[in-house]
Amino acid sequence: MTLKRFDPEKRKMILALDKASFDTACKNSKTGEFLHDDAVQIITLPLNEENRSYPVLQQLAQNNLLISGTLLAEDPFYAGNYLPLERFAEQTQLTKAELFALLCQTLGAKKVIFHVNQSSDKNQNAKAEAEVTGTMGDYADIDTSARAGLSEKLYQKLTANHEYDGHEPTAEDFLEAEALIHRHRLDSTFKHILESRKHKNAIKQSKVSLELSSETDKTFNIATKFSIKITEELAGIKGSINVNSKSVQKMTVETTVIFA
Questions:
Q1: Which residues are registered as beta bridge partners of 142?
Q2: Do the domain assignments include residue 143?
Q3: So what's the pLDDT on residue 24?
C-alpha cells in the first residue's frame, strides 16, 4: 500500500508507525480510509530517504518524538512545532495566555490582569474566579477550586503580576503587533485589541474574554475521530493511542487590560 507523500503545508497531525504496525495496517482490508486520512500524516519508521529530507521530520526524530503509535499534533501558534497529545492542552493554553500578554505589552499596556473563570464539560459547577494584582508569589486568598484543572505553569501565568511601564504605541508597534498576530495565527480577540488601539480615540481600558481551549477543542475533535478509526480498524496499535480518555476542560479567562 502506498502512503500519500508528506506535505509540509497540510500537516496537522502525525502518526509514526514501525514496520510491524504498518504491515498490520496494510493487511487489514478496512484500513484504506485510515491510512489516507486528510488530517493525519502517516510516517513509517525508520524514516525513508525522502522523509529524512524534511527539516520538520528531522527535528522530530532528533527530539525522540517519532515513536511508533504516538500521535503528534501541530502547535496552533508555532507552525512546524509538534506536541504529544498528553502535553498539547497545557502547552497551547499557556502559550495563548503568554501571547495575549505580549500583544498588550507591545500595544502599550501598563497592566494585564487575568480573572480565572473555568468550567468543565463534565462538571459545570466547577467554576472559580480570581483577581490577582500582586507579585508571582503574592496570591490572592482564593478558593482552592480555582486551581482545578490548571497546571502549575498555567496557574502561575494567570496569577502573575503583569505590569509594564506603558507607552503610547507607535507605527512600528502596530506593525510589530500585526506581525505577531499573523505569525502565530491568533484569533479575532487579538485583532480586536489591535484595532481598538489604532483608533483615533484609542481605548485606555478593556475587559476581554479570552478563550484558552478553542484550539485544543479543534485538535482533540480530530484526534478523537482518528482514534476511533484506529480502534475499529487497526486493533494492533489501539492501545497506544487513547484520546478518548483525555478530558479537555473548557477554560475562558476574563481579562482586564489597562493601557497608558
A1: none
A2: yes
A3: 74
Q: How many domains is the chain partitioned into structurally? A: 2
User: Which pLDDT value is given to residue 145?
Assistant: 45
Q: Within 10 Å of residue 188's Cβ, how many Cβ atoms?
A: 9
Q: Quick check: 227 and 243 in contact, CB under 8 A?
A: yes
* Residue 3 domain-assigned (yes or no): no
- Counting every residue written for the chain, the total comes to 260
Helices 188-198 and 171-183, packing angle to 10 deg = 170
**Residues in the chain with pLDDT < 70?**
1-4, 8-11, 28-37, 117-149, 227-249
Residues 142 and 241 in one domain: no
- The cell for 159 is 496569577
**All residues at 6 or more sequence positions from 127 whose CB lies less than 8 Å from its CB, including other chains:** 117, 118, 119, 145
pTM above 0.85, yes or no: no
**Position 225 in a domain:** yes
| Burial degree of 243 (CB within 10 A; 0-12, 13-18, 19+) | buried
